[in-house]
Structure formats: structure tokens, C-alpha cells
From TrEMBL:
An essential GTPase which binds GTP, GDP and possibly (p)ppGpp with moderate affinity, with high nucleotide exchange rates and a fairly low GTP hydrolysis rate. Plays a role in control of the cell cycle, stress response, ribosome biogenesis and in those bacteria that undergo differentiation, in morphogenesis control. GTP binds at residues 165-172, 190-194, 212-215, 282-285, 314-316. GO terms for molecular function: GTP binding; GTPase activity; magnesium ion binding. This is GTPase Obg. It comes from Suipraeoptans intestinalis. Keywords: Cytoplasm, GTP-binding, Hydrolase, Magnesium, Metal-binding, Nucleotide-binding. GO terms for biological process: ribosome biogenesis. Its EC number is 3.6.5.-.
Length: 428
């Protein structure tokens, strides 16, 4: 089975803890703090590997954990940074947050490498917390926790044109005729179990990539047959060739076939119905000449007023293929040449910081002390020396409910707030 979907758990490394130590040397009776900083935790990075074409590797292993940073040491020794974990995926892989389905990254086009989860920053050693009033700090900052996320990997093939239609209408034969692809061809409804890609080369015209999208049957958008597994591959295509059995060799109406498949496309994604379509009326070599009405003419009368061009073709003999392919090439040339890329909707660094972790607000000698893993995590993310970082810090205090808790505890303007190594005056 073609592996185009996988669910995995990823976790970045925790930052190493800062160290608490003091200089202890001969003739230096009151050595100051010399605890070193912790090392950075490893990132989780996704990279495109042009040699891959499935997500098969992620079907067997489901957890990918980056290493933690090393703890700081004595004499201001910095802990070693952890190595990153790099996950290789085929081009066209879309990474989504599993629960919401929101896009984190689309590994297509120029995006060949993306850090999805950042490793935790190393904690500061106690050397950083010495002040004129606290010369013997016995506190060091813990390393920032890593981030954990369950992600869904979906491979959406990259092709200019998608071949759609019911099984057994001749899509695989068509593809083998017009491209360098060599799909398996047989008279069975589910011969094709994987998207087949091929390149159409045209003389004096621009070629294009075409994909045979398998598994489309009535009810596909609800998961019937294999349709739901493969409909995602149409989402990148800029134009669709709708192949129908114009001869009706299986007793179905070609016109009804078009409407049924288009209904499945619209049910899966409304945007697919906005993509241009052209109808390839296939198997014209099997149409009985003495019939009452020409089925190709019936298709033209039905769909060409809707702006859908109909081309009579025969995949078996090659008749009509040239006209169809040159028309498709011209249409693609007139369309936006930018590939279909899915924009980022989920930002792990911002989303995960508001996880429901506990914190406490207490008053010690007139100072309001806020502690808890939620605070440590936020401080690890935020650069308070920058204006943007401090604004993000203020937003966090408000949205996490910390300002409300401080007010409930009776804080007034000018009172002092302490959060681990950070101390500041409170003003609304």
C-alpha cells in the first residue's frame, strides 16, 4: 500500500539546567558565584529528501525525541548543546497539528528545511543573579522544557494536472500513452493503488507534470473505497482532466459520471470546484456508429456551455490526444505559475506556551512571588531585553491570568514582583 499519511509524536530537547556553585580557591576566602549555563536542547527539524516518495518509514516508528542539553558546570563551564533531530520527508509533505488539522509546514517549493519544534534554552547559572544586595545567590535557572506535539504527515503529490474519473475509464492507459509513466493496466476497478506521475513532453510547447489520481468512486469524499485516501493528491493540481468512458462500456451514463465525480470533489473541498476542468471523452473507438445520438456531442451540449471543453479521444489508438494536450498546455501557460502551497496556520512556539501548567502567587516580605513551570517556560522563550519580547511578556501575563491573580492578592502600583531571577515593579 502506498504510504502517504502517518501520525507521529515529536518532542524537542529540554535545555540543560543552570548550575549553582561558588569559587573555592586557596587564598580566596569569599569566592563569588561561578555556576555555568546549561546547554540548549535539540530542535526537531523536517527536511525534504528528493530520493523519498512515500512516508513508509513513519509507519514503523511513531516517536521522535531530540536530546536534552547538558547541565552547566562549575567555574562558569557552559553545558554542551544537544544535537538536533532531522526527519527526512518526501517533497510535497504537509505537516499538520494532529488534533486541529491546522498546517504547521508545507515541505514544497523553496521550503526544503523547517524547524518545527525548538529545543529549550539552557538555564542561566547562579553567576548571573549576583547583585549588590544578593552576593551569594543560591538559585540557578532551570533549563527551558522541550516542546511536545503529535503531528499528522500528509503527502500531497506535486503535479500541474490531475487525472480524475471513475475506475476503469482508461486513466492509466491515457497516462501511459502521453507520458513516460508506466502504470499497471488491467480491467479491474482497483488496479491503481498509488498516484502515478508522468511528464508530458510537447514539441514547440511547454510540457507539464500529470498525475493519475486513483480510487475515485461514488462516496469517495466520505471515505468509500480508497477515495478519501487519495483525494488529497488533487489539492495541488492547477487543472484537472476528467476522463469519462464516452462509449458507456460498463452501462453508465458519461454525463452522470462527470456530475458524480464532481460532487465528490466538492464534498471533499469546495475550492476544488474552482479549478479549471477539461473533459476527455475516452474510448471513442468503441462507440457504435449506428447509435441514435453521438455521446460525445451530448457531453459537449451539456458541459461546454458551462465553460468545460470536451475532447473526444481514444487512449487505445491515440486519436485526439494531441489536441487535448496542446490545449491543456496553453491553459496552464495562461494561469498563475506559482505552485499550490499551503500556508502555515499553527505556530507551535506560540500555541504551546499557553498550555495549562500550574503556577502560584505568594507574598513574601512584601514582595509578590510568582512561581511554577508555566513561568519558567515563558521566561525561557522570551527575550525581555527587546521591546517586542517585553510586549509578548506583558501579553502572556494578561492572557495567562497572572495579572488577575496578582490583583486578587492585593498588589498595588509600585509593589515588587519576583519571578525566579526576574524582579520588577508593578504598574498598570
Amino acid at each position: 500500500m502506498f504510504a502517504d499519511r502517518a501520525k507521529i509524536l515529536i518532542r524537542s530537547g529540554k535545555g540543560g539546567d543552570g548550575h549553582v556553585s561558588f569559587r573555592r580557591e586557596l587564598y580566596v576566602p569569599n569566592g563569588g558565584p561561578d555556576g555555568g549555563d546549561g546547554g540548549r536542547g535539540g530542535d526537531v527539524i523536517f527536511e525534504v529528501d528528493k530520493g523519498l516518495n512515500t512516508l513508509q518509514d513513519y509507519r514503523h516508528k511513531r516517536k521522535y525525541l531530540a536530546k536534552d542539553g547538558q547541565e552547566g558546570g562549575k567555574r562558569k563551564c557552559h553545558g554542551k548543546d544537544a544535537s538536533d533531530i532531522i526527519l527526512k520527508v518526501p517533497e510535497g509533505t504537509v505537516i499538520k497539528e494532529a488534533e486541529s488539522g491546522k498546517v504547521i509546514a508545507d515541505m514544497s517549493g523553496d521550503n526544503c528545511r523547517q524547524v518545527v519544534l525548538k529545543g529549550g534554552r539552557g538555564g542561566l547559572g547562579n553567576q548571573h543573579f549576583a547583585t549588590s544586595t544578593m552576593q551569594v545567590p543560591k538559585y540557578a535557572q532551570p533549563g527551558q522544557p522541550g516542546q511536545e506535539l503529535t503531528v499528522l504527515l500528509e503527502l500531497k503529490v506535486i503535479a500541474d494536472v490531475g487525472l480524475i474519473g471513475f475506475p476503469n475509464v482508461g486513466k492509466s492507459t491515457f497516462l501511459s500513452r502521453v507520458t513516460n509513466a508506466t502504470p499497471k493496466i488491467a480491467n479491474y476497478h482497483f488496479t491503481t493503488l498509488a498516484p502515478n506521475l508522468g511528464v508530458v513532453d510537447l514539441k514547440d510547447a511547454k510540457g507539464f507534470v500529470i498525475a493519475d489520481i486513483p480510487g475515485l468512486i461514488e462516496g469517495a469524499s466520505e471515505g468509500a473505497g480508497l477515495g478519501h485516501e487519495f483525494l488529497r493528491h488533487i489539492e495541488r493540481t492547477r487543472l484537472m482532466i476528467h476522463v469519462v468512458d464516452a462509449a458507456g462500456t460498463e452501462g453508465r451514463s458519461p454525463i452522470e459520471d462527470v456530475y458524480k465525480i464532481n460532487h465528490e470533489l466538492g464534498s471533499y473541498s469546495a475550492s476544488l470546484m474552482e479549478r479549471p476542468q477539461v473533459i476527455a471523452a475516452n474510448k471513442t473507438d468503441l462507440i457504435f456508429a449506428g447509435g441514435e445520438e453521438d455521446p460525445v456531442e451530448l457531453l459537449k451540449k451539456e458541459f461546454e456551455p458551462q465553460g468545460i471543453k470536451v475532447f473526444p479521444i481514444s487512449g487505445a489508438t491515440g486519436e485526439g490526444l494531441s489536441d487535448l494536450l496542446y490545449y491543456v498546455s496553453r491553459e496552464l501557460e495562461s494561469m498563475d505559475q506559482a505552485p499550490v502551497i499551503f500556508n502555515q496556520e499553527y505556530f507551535p512556539e506560540e500555541e504551546l506556551i499557553y498550555e495549562n501548567l500550574p503556577y502560584t502567587v505568594e507574598v513574601e516580605d512584601g514582595i509578590y512571588v510568582v512561581e511554577g513551570p508555566k513561568i519558567e517556560k515563558m521566561l525561557g522563550y522570551t527575550n525581555l531585553d527587546s521591546e517586542k519580547g517585553f510586549a509578548f511578556f506583558q501579553k502572556f501575563l494578561k492572557e495567562a491570568g497572572i495579572l488577575t491573580k496578582l490583583e486578587e492578592a492585593g498588589i498595588a502600583e509600585g509593589d515588587t514582583v519576583r519571578m525566579y531571577g526576574l524582579q520588577f515593579d508593578y504598574y498598570k
